[in-house]
Amino acid sequence: MGNIITYQDLDVWQQNRILVKMVYQHSQVFPKEEQFGLTQQIRKSAISIPSNIAEGCGRNHTKDSLQFFYIARGSIYELETQLILANDLNYLKEDSYDLLKEQIIRCKKLLNGFINYFSNQSNNEQQTTVNETLKEYGNINWN
Q1: Domain ranges in the chain?
Q2: pLDDT tens digits for range 94-133
Q3: CA 115 → CA 12, 41, 45, 56, distances in Å?
Q4: Model pLDDT, residue 94
Q5: What was the pLDDT predicted at 127?
Q6: Which of 30, 40, 67, 107 has its CA 20 to 30 A from that of 20?
Q7: So what's the architecture of 7-54+71-117 in CATH?
Q8: HSE toward the beta carbon, residue 94, CA cutoff 13 A
Q9: How far apart are alpha carbons 37 and 68 in whole angstroms?
């Protein structure tokens, strides 16, 4: 994984960026009357995920950061529900829904692992800044 310098180097952030792009691409086919309804809500939920990861990484202490990572996790569940509803309403083709669902599963796994790592760091006695934690997170051998 190498030395992680910023949140932009994190797989969890990068994969959620991909999810946002996918959501925008696949929601273009939604009915026009949904432009200010479900389409907008789905896009806002998707954008919230990498945005909150980035904001969490900008905080000074692990406990502060965790709050934003939890918000990101809530947003991914919100997005998942909205995509299920879009599928129920036949706004998405089945193959599009399956691709989005696979990416959501990937992102949820990465985000949960990231949150678990940060939670363990915050349980340590010493205060840790997010940048110190990111550096340590980047030095873990995942094999």
Answers
A1: 7-54+71-117
A2: 999 999 999 999 999 999 999 998 888 777 645 555 666 6
A3: 10, 25, 19, 11
A4: 94
A5: 53
A6: 67
A7: Up-down Bundle (1.20)
A8: 0
A9: 25
